[in-house]
Amino acid sequence: MRDPRIKKRILIITAYVAIFLTAVFLVYGVVSKDPTCSDGNQNQNEKGVDCGGTCSPCRDISASQDISVVESDFVFGGNDTYDALVRISNSNSSVGASSFSYKASLKDASGAVLDEKTGKGFVMPAESKYLIILGFSVSGNDNPSSLDFVVSEVKWEEFTKYQKPQLGVYSKRFSLLSDIVGGEAYGVLRNESGFDFASIKVNVILRDSANKPLALNTTVINTVKSGEERDFKLIWPYQLPGEVKNIETEAEADTYNTQNFIKTYVPDRSFQFQQ
Fold it and tell me: Could you tell me the residue ranges of all domains in the chain?
């Protein structure tokens, strides 16, 4: 016959396990909350965060002004390729585009398309910025004459607070390569914002004395902490069509993408760029 003491121990252990599981269930019931229309999460059958589905309809955010193109040009990119420069502007003061699609078409004098490039971009409220599109392939017998640029599928987002990250480029200089064919540009990127970024993009435009673009290039610098300086160098290994008189640079960080923030020193909360 089984020892009564063992049987008693089994009953005691079973009772403790039952009490523990009941306590865990009660704590979970208190801590975990049912999805609501004000919990800051897109759950239930919501179409947006706390809107749509069982919640009130999502507000239709639209912009009073479309994204406009204020400059477009193209330059020779070496090896039967061309590069395009497009400057876009968003004149809306509180609405930005977290995403938009574009199609850039390089055409000859008759309007025939020589090559096309598609892509996606973003633009902040009241921002004017460059898009550099590299590598249009053109046959040696073709001569590009114009560049068409079309924006579509704009996703607008409204901001109640917005602060553009402070990114500076300093110590810019250009020099010819040793064989006097092509050249190189050098600069120092400084992250003057209070945030660490996973990646920062730097656009470089070389211009002549008439401010006409001569060469374009872009680079991405990864893992740039607040207050950190990083140098960069871009090379054009072909003869430029003029004398470089001005180096124009523009640095940007995608603050719509929360993965671009390195949260080492930043609490897990909504960033002031997107509120």
Answer: 68-158, 167-262
